[in-house]
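In response to the reviewer comment on reproducibility (Comment 2.3), we provide here a single inverse folding case reported in full, input and output, so that an independent group could reproduce the run without further information from us. The structure tokens appear first.
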């Protein structure tokens, strides 16, 4: 495949991923400022979507590239991103299933067992210093009793309005919620930790809960959407909607909110 230039995904929604509910409680946040990569989930089944999530990408990084394997080889380059132009160039190892994000993360859709193995992120900072970080994940065939969705997750989030300034209200509009929904929760960031939680809703008892930090400035709706009022630049970042169905299947979608100064 010839290298092709295309816009990077920075502020549009990220497609939802499917995880088993048991994996959610094992996710831990990074306690160090150094760059690390987390495979979400660390072990996945064929057909799943895998997010190689980058923690603590340094602010002085001006470009980065993703590779398959453990060595920086042109023939194994998936894609590279240039911060100055906010653009990506696809590499020869891009299969059409990978999406690279401006925060350094890499999404691989509909994985197969051939996708198992090491992935390498190379960063280049403004002083032209290069750093390499590796991550590994494993893809297995569906095990007995593991039921996969008949169709890929269609859960998405839309920002309304799409461009947000300080003191605006913004609706994080949930679309295509799964059937037989048991409940859902919103978090700031990617990891489902209590101190990042914004709100949750239980379908069976029709009960919603907002965390203290968001009292008076957030509203959660039964259709899965979240309204944030009078936003500031501190509200910028990733927001995650997680859903749990009656059979304990979990789906999630992510949106990147950028609050602009007036």
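Designed residues, in position order:
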């Amino acid at each position: 495949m010839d290298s092709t230039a295309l816009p990077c995904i920075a502020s549009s929604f990220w497609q939802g991923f499917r995880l088993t509910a048991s994996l959610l409680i094992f996710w831990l946040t990074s306690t160090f400022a150094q760059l690390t990569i987390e495979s979400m989930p660390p072990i996945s089944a064929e057909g799943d979507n895998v997010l190689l999530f980058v923690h603590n990408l340094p602010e002085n990084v001006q470009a980065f590239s993703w590779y398959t394997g453990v060595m920086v080889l042109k023939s194994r380059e998936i894609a590279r991103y240039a911060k100055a132009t906010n653009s990506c160039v696809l590499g020869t190892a891009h299969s059409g299933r990978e999406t690279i994000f401006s925060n350094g993360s890499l999404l691989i859709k509909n994985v197969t067992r051939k996708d198992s193995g090491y992935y390498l992120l190379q960063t280049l900072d403004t002083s032209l210093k290069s750093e390499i970080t590796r991550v590994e994940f494993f893809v297995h065939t569906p095990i007995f009793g593991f039921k996969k969705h008949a169709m890929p997750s269609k859960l998405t989030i839309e920002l309304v309005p799409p461009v947000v300034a300080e003191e605006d209200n913004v609706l994080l509009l949930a679309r295509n919620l799964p059937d037989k929904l048991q409940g859902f929760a919103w978090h700031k960031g990617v990891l489902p930790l209590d101190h990042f939680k914004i709100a949750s809703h239980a379908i069976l008892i029709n009960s919603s809960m907002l965390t203290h930090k968001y009292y008076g400035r957030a509203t959660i709706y039964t259709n899965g959407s979240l309204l944030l009022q009078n936003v500031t630049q501190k509200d910028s970042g990733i927001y995650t909607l997680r859903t749990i169905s009656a059979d304990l299947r979990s789906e999630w979608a992510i949106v990147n909110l950028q609050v602009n100064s007036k």
